[in-house]
UniProtKB/TrEMBL annotation:
GO terms for cellular component: ribonucleoprotein complex; ribosome. GO terms for biological process: translation. This is S1 RNA binding domain protein. GO terms for molecular function: mRNA binding; structural constituent of ribosome. InterPro entries: NA-bd_OB-fold, Ribos_protein_bS1-like, S1_domain. Keywords: Ribonucleoprotein, Ribosomal protein. It comes from the Bacteria. SMART domains: S1 (SM00316). PANTHER family: 30S RIBOSOMAL PROTEIN S1, SMALL RIBOSOMAL SUBUNIT PROTEIN BS1C. Residues 125-192, 208-234 form the S1 motif domain. Belongs to the bacterial ribosomal protein bS1 family.
Amino acid sequence: MTKYLPEGRFFNSPENRYYLRSRENLAEAMAGGLTLEGHAVMCTAEHDLVVELPFGKGLIPREEGALGIADGTTRDIALLSRVNKTVCFKVTDIIDSDEGVTAILSRRAAQQECKDNYINGLRCGDVIPAKVTHLEPFGAFVDIGCGIPSLIPIDAISVSRIAHPNDRFFNGQDIYAAVKNIECGRICLTHKELLGTWSQNASLFSAGETVGGVIRSVEPYGIFIELAPNLAGLAEPKDGIRAGQAASVYIKALIPDKMKVKLIIVDVFENLCFPSKINYFINSGRLERWEYSTKESGKTMVSVF
C-alpha cells in the first residue's frame, strides 16, 4: 500500500533518477509499466503539460493530465496548478525526431492504477500518508496518492479550534490522516485523532512551567490558549488581546477530571511563526475507536470508524 504515495515522495529516489537518466532507461520503464515522477515546467495553451527530462522533454496531453479531465468531472485548473511542481506519470510512447526526444506521458494512467490498487481498497480508520496541496477556509485539500485529492474539513484538523487551515498546515507539507468516511467513491479524511488524547498531550506539560502558546479565542469569561494542536488552556480575561497572537504562559494547574488547563498569561506578542512541526501520536495502522476524553472527566469525546 505504501507504493502509491503523494506526488513528490518518489522524485528524488535512486530508482526514479535511474529511469529518467536516458532514453534507454525510460524505454525500460515504459516496457515495465512503471510509474515515475518529473518536474512540470509548463502548461501549454492547449492545456498539455510539459515535463522536463535530462535528455529531452515529456508531454502529458490534456486528457491524460488527470482522472476526470476527459469527462469534465475534473476542471482544467487541476492541470494549470501542477506547473512548477512534481507530477507522476506512465510512459506511453517515445518519439525521436530532428528536434530531439519527446516522451508521451500519462498522469491519468498512473492515477487510475493508484485508484484501482490502493484507493479503492482503503477502509474507514486506515491511517495514510498525505500531502497538503491547497488550503481553503473550510478545510485542507490533500494528495493521498499520485495526485488524487481528498479533503480534511477544518473541524477535523485538530481538537483545538483554528480560524483557518493555514494556522496548522502549509502547502506542500507531508502529513498523516485517517479515512473518516467513503461516499460514492469519494474519501473524506480526519486528522485530529492522530494528535493524541487529552491525557497524552497533558503529559507533555507540568504545573509550574512557562511555555509558549497561541491565542485561539477571546471570550468574556477567559482567553483560550493552545499549547498543542489537541490541548488548550484557559487564562483570565485581559484587555488588548486578540486571536492569532502568540503568548508565553505559566501553567497554574492541569486538572484531568475536568480536562482543564489553568494558565496565567506572562506576555503576548505578534505571532510570526511558521506552522510548527506536527507531533503525531499515531502515524500508521487502522483506527476503530478513538477517545479524546479522560476517564475521570465523565465526558465522552469519541470518534468511531
